[in-house]
Amino acid sequence: MKREFTGKHAAAIIVTGFAIIIAVNLFMATLAVRGFGGVIVENSYVASQEFNDWLEAAEEQEALGWSVEMTRSENGHLLIDTTSVPDGATVTAEARRPLGQPESKSLSFIEATPGNHVSLEPLDTGRWIVRLKVASPEGEAWSTEEQLP
């Protein structure tokens, strides 16, 4: 005995198909929102108004002629080479995770040897974006680097 394909069958197939598509989209959107760690700027209009100030700060920094190298030791401490920076400079850093759950950490440094700074606390394993700030009475410089595990 064959059953006849009716409009009810077609409607059920269409509704089921759309239900599957909607369920998958909701699942993927949930994963995307949970994995989003933040925004680059809070307000893009305000950031656009500050852009010229950022360019001037970058030119002032470049005029200082400082070069700062950042590496990571085996035990997780950040090592900063500031040999081109005048004596007495202070080094600070903000580290944040670029992916996954938002996590940030403030780092303080001590000058282990002249021109070489070491972070007081280690940075956990994993990927980090580190914004380094070096300041002295003659000026201020910053750099941003991505640290891999």
Structural features, described:
With 149 residues, the protein is α+β, with helices and mostly antiparallel strands. The chain has 2 domains: 1-34, no CATH class; 44-147, Immunoglobulin-like (Sandwich), CATH 2.60.40. The chain is built from 2 helices and 7 strands. Strands 1-2-5-4-3-6-7 form a 7-stranded antiparallel beta sheet. The longest helix is centred in the N-terminal third of the chain and has 28 residues, at 7-34. The radius of gyration is 26 Å and the shape is elongated. The model has no long low-confidence stretch (mean pLDDT 84).
Q: How far is the first residue's CA from the last residue's CA?
A: 66 Å
Largest sheet: 7 strands, antiparallel
Structural class: alpha+beta
- Number of DSSP helical runs: 2
How are the strands of the biggest sheet laid out side by side? 1-2-5-4-3-6-7
What's the CATH architecture of the largest domain?
Sandwich
Protein name: FixH family protein
Transmembrane segments: 12-33
Keywords: Membrane, Transmembrane, Transmembrane helix
Pfam family, one: FixH
